[in-house]
Amino acid sequence: MTWLADPVTLIPTPNASLAETTERSMADALRTVALSMAHKAQGNDAGLAEVGLAVGMADAATVLWSGFHRFDSADPHWPDRDRFVLSPGYGAPLLYALLHLTEHDGMDAATLTTHREIDSSAAGHPDFKLHPAIEATTGPLGQGLGMAVGMALAERLLAARFGKSLVDHRTWVIATLGDLMEGVSHEAASLAGHLRLEKLVVLLEDDTGCEDYSSALAGPDDALRRFAALGWATRTLDAHDPVALASALSLSARSRKPTLIACRTALGRGWIGRPVDPGAAKRWADVGHGGTSARRAWLKRLTHHPQRAEFERVMAGRLPEGWADSLAAFKASLPSDRRPASTRDSAERLLETLAPSFPELVGGQTELGPASGLPVRPGSFSGRQVHYGPREHGMAACLNGLALHGGLLPYAIAPLAATDSMRPALRLSAMMGLRAIHVATHDSIGLGAAGAAYQPVEQLAGLRAIPNLLVLRPADSIEAAECCELAVRRTEGPTMLVLSEQPLPTIRFDAGENRSARGAYVLAEANGPRAATLVATGSEVALALAARERLGAEGIAVAVVSMPAWGLFARAEPATRAAVLGSAPRFGIEAACGFGWERWLGEDGVFLGLSSFGASGPAEALFRHFNLTPESVAIAVKRRLTRP
Predict the structure, then answer these.
(1) Residue 50 binned pLDDT confidence (cut-offs 50, 70, 90)
(2) Are 293 and 320 contained in the same domain?
(3) Which residues are catalytic?
(4) Looking at residue 103, which CATH number applies to its domain?
(5) Which of 122, 264, 380, 591 is the 20 to 30 A CA-CA neighbour of 337?
(6) What is the DSSP letter of 417?
(7) Is residue 324 in some structural domain?
(8) How far apart, in whole angstroms, are the C-alpha atoms of residue 531 and residue 547?
């Protein structure tokens, strides 16, 4: 039943004839519902941006949803539906009103009255987990547009694999000038233009005419010229002219480029506050079920399609048969190959090994060097490797869109220091619980001569602080394989593999149980009652083992614990954690800052790592400079044990 709330009166329209059209009455209904939500939730403090978006873009949203956006409210998860992303999350009432009027279950009148309340499906910003028709959690500006680029790329990749009979849909975005000012939108738009993602269309709320309130106050930015330079088709029109809007959207369907349509808005133009017209409500309900016939036709095609089983498997996120055999064979080969290898190299070799039996695995990197596998090229999507270039933030947002779309398991490679640029997208990925794999390389001062600006020190602590982001830092090739397995199997959120660039010695020679899945484990027990426990991650585990040997030669029995996954170890039973860490003094060893280590070391523990940024020099010299050597660790242990 349509919500007939008291209207919020706005500036009267100067164009009475346009208000009589079908589109106008539907747009008025959309405005009434959206603005009444905002008014009830915030009273007289309803945000101008939230209200302005609903007023200004209701006409454009009406034309889009009633004539072009293909969906069926009876099945919000229909795989070949169009995707719609409201990039400015503060405009959530516009999206909720659309879902309400098109009769989506779970967005009824009672739900709308709980806008901005705890546990409401109509949260303050659209939340992917709260309603099946919300395609993405959009909060920080620009993120929605970045994710939409990933969705459009996913559609092209899957269409190349399964054909147009199963995959043939578009991605629609409503964005603001604020979205386009964010750096992530530039990076993502540049990628979309380069790859010619022709099924991506952005409707831009262009409020430059509203000088008192518009984004123009932040400075000049000719978005259309910028996007045209990035390879987009661009148009400008009156946001309140449904005929022009329909014409532009029709042209976008024939474009060979992604399209940006700037919709010039005027505050309050085109509407006088009034109750919802019952006729408009009925037309909106018809829109909600307008895609039923297309969905049923698609289901018939799926029934008879030779790739039906495989399509259903990848869309359900089920792992392919045989991939575990490839993994086991790779792990079994590692103990016999004792040559030092970087954990980055080991992980990349494993991913290459899995690729033939894992067709939904789609990779990418920010580095400009060659990538393994067939690359994705402009207008050609049969490859599985995306050259993102140095667009770290756009890449992370794109990965979110690839994961949200379904049917793919995306991973991407970037230096660990670059995760500072990716953090907003990583945070949203963890918030949504997306299945995406980030491979962070150059993980410490082991990078060497490049200098402090490129050596990550504080990044590990920052990433570990993000809820639901699983951070894994393996110590050798076997742990790297185990951590890759954990990343592939994980379905409840993203994973960050933190990998070394410098070669590391093999410290494990058992390839059976995945010991990294414990989070932390005793790699080498003390030869006698523990005098101390050395807890290390990544490249510093080998250092801890060497220190153990040194101390053992002096009669000091020390255990070494490898801790590749803080997050997993935190979930272990207290008794299990106590057995691993022991009661003797603990020493944390990591070539990074010590923030957070106190959780594992206790009050009497000692952290051996960095308390400053790195420096320029050979890796071996840097480890000596920062007292991260077996000798310095042994000295620190003896000093602590002899302290009164």
Answers:
(1) confident
(2) no
(3) 392
(4) 3.40.50.970
(5) 591
(6) G
(7) yes
(8) 13
Q: Does residue 529 belong to any structural domain of this protein?
A: yes
Q: Which of 270, 299, 328 is the last residue of a domain?
A: 299
pLDDT of residue 8: 34
Tell me, yes or no, whether 609 and 584 share the same domain. Answer: yes
Q: pLDDT band at residue 435, thresholds of 50, 70 and 90?
A: very high
Res. 359: pLDDT tops 80: yes
Does the model's pTM come out above 0.85? yes
Q: Is the pLDDT of residue 371 over 80?
A: no
Strands 521-524 and 200-206, bridge-based pairing = unpaired
**Is the model's pLDDT at 11 over the cut of 60?**
no
Clarify whether residues 362 and 447 are in a common domain.
Answer: yes
pLDDT at position 636: 97
The pLDDT value given to residue 43:
58
Number of domains in the chain: 3
Indicate whether 229 and 324 sit together in one domain.
no
Looking from the CA of 487 toward its CB, the CA atoms found within 13 Å total 31
What CATH number is associated with residue 525? 3.40.50.920
Provide the residue range defining the domain that includes 548: 518-641
Enumerate residues 6+ apart whose C-beta is below 8 A from 181: 141, 142, 215, 218, 221
Q: Are 353 and 248 found together in one domain?
A: no
Q: Which of 9, 70, 15 is nearest to 36 (CA)?
A: 9
Residue 509: inside a domain: no
**Tokens (6 digits) for 521:** 């484990």
Sequence-distant (≥ 6) Cβ neighbours of residue 318 within 8 angstroms: none
Please tell me whether residues 338 and 269 are part of one structural domain: no
Report the DSSP beta bridge partners of residue 607. Answer: 588
Q: Is 59 exposed, middle or buried (0-12, 13-18, 19+ CB in 10 A)?
A: buried
Which is it for the CA torsion 452, 455, 459, 461, positive or negative? negative
Within-domain flag for 543: yes
- Show which of 498, 528, 561 is a domain's final residue: 498
Cα 411 to Cα 421: distance, rounded to the nearest angstrom: 17
* Residue 124: Cβ within 10 Å count: 17
Running DSSP on this structure, what letter comes out for residue 180? H
Task: With a cut of 70, say whether residue 7 has pLDDT above it.
Answer: no
Q: Name the β-bridge partners of 587.
A: 534, 606
Q: What is the pLDDT of residue 547?
A: 98
pLDDT score for 36: 87
Percent of the chain with pLDDT over 90: 79
Measure the CA–CA gap between 466 and 460, rounded to whole angstroms.
10
- Does residue 438 contact residue 411 with C-beta atoms inside 8 Å? yes
| Long-range residue pairs from 316-324, CB within 8 A, at least 24 positions apart, any chain | 317/406, 317/435, 317/491, 319/358, 319/488, 319/489, 320/357, 320/358, 320/359, 320/360, 322/357, 323/354, 323/357, 323/358, 323/488
Task: For helices 22-42 and 48-67, give the axis angle rounded to 10 degrees.
Answer: 150
CA of residue 637 relative to chain centroid, distance: 42
